[in-house]
């Protein structure tokens, strides 16, 4: 099996685990009153811990996939979590998946396949200087802070606040995802002791951890004020968009945009985003 094929398979496993984790965590977060301490309440709930295990397992497989393939291959496939979330959501809510929902699921699957076939994403550089990372991270930070601020406005409707927290969480998840690739690949050939010393003095590791923790907290905040249909579209779309932009701008990854390839890539991106939003609202 080629490295790209392996990264695709691993990304799909990650998407399945993310779907399980999000479904379990949303059920618990939605049951916490907004005046209560969110984290203090959640850590007492076993199902929330199961959801956290699903998220961590998903991240482990996602990191493995990133070690083998480009961000522009792995991240779009994480949107496939919606395909897995559809039957899981129906099971938890004791409902049936409609023909229209299965249709949107098929559209999303075709759009993802078309993006990978037509775009032919290619790997870029394994890392970039701090001066290249800084402007991109500042922009993402401003977006995350601004959308978090909107989410904290208690006078806004719950759906608007959930959407805002979701965008902030997705943006930080995107940063953590892209930073995972250079953190993993920069040290894979060095000795263990040298690896450990370099890793513990690497600013990227600490930014990755802070973004990951911040994103997980904001995700729970997004699940709290409104049903998951209000927040999951934002999280699901903001993460791959942020990661793809960082992968292209910072790590110089690319997709084919000439001729019919470019038309297919743009069309699959638009159609996939619409299908993902429809499914997330489910």
Overview of the structural elements:
The protein starts with a helix and ends with a helix. It has one domain (3-281). The model has no long low-confidence stretch (mean pLDDT 84). It has twelve helices and no strands. The protein is mainly α. The protein has helices at 3-29, 38-42, 46-68, 71-78, 81-92, 99-119, 130-151, 158-185, 192-200, 203-223, 228-249, 259-281. Helix 8 (158-185) runs parallel beside helix 11.
Annotation keywords:
12 helices, globular, 282 residues
SSE diagram, text form:
Elements: H1 3-29, H2 38-42, H3 46-68, H4 71-78, H5 81-92, H6 99-119, H7 130-151, H8 158-185, H9 192-200, H10 203-223, H11 228-249, H12 259-281
Protein name: EamA domain-containing protein
Transmembrane segments: 63-90, 102-119, 131-153, 165-183, 203-218, 230-251, 257-280
Signal peptide: 1-29
């Amino acid at each position: 099996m080629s490295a790209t094929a392996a990264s695709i398979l691993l990304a799909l496993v990650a998407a399945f685990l993310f779907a399980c984790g999000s479904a379990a965590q949303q059920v618990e977060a939605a049951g916490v009153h907004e005046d209560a301490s969110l984290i203090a309440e959640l850590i007492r709930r076993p199902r929330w811990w199961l959801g956290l295990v699903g998220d961590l397992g998903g991240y482990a497989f996602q990191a493995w996939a990133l070690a083998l393939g480009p961000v522009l291959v792995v991240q779009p496939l994480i949107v496939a979590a919606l395909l897995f979330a559809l039957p899981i959501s129906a099971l938890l809510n004791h409902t049936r998946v409609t023909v229209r929902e299965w249709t949107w699921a098929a559209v999303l699957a075709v759009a993802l396949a078309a993006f990978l076939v037509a775009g032919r994403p290619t790997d870029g550089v394994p890392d970039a200087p701090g001066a290249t990372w800084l402007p991109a991270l500042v922009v993402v930070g401003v977006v995350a802070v601004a959308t978090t601020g909107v989410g904290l406005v208690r006078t806004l409707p719950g759906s608007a606040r959930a959407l805002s927290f979701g965008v902030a969480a997705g943006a930080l998840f995107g940063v953590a995802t892209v930073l995972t690739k250079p953190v993993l690949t920069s040290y894979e050939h060095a000795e263990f002791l040298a690896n450990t010393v370099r890793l513990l003095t690497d600013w990227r590791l600490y930014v990755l951890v802070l973004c990951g923790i911040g994103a997980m907290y904001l995700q729970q905040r997004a699940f709290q004020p409104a049903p998951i249909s209000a927040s999951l579209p934002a999280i699901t779309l903001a993460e791959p968009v942020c990661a793809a932009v960082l992968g292209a701008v910072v790590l110089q990854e690319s997709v084919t945009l000439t001729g019919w390839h470019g038309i297919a890539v743009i069309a699959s991106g638009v159609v996939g985003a619409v299908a993902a939003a429809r499914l997330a609202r489910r």
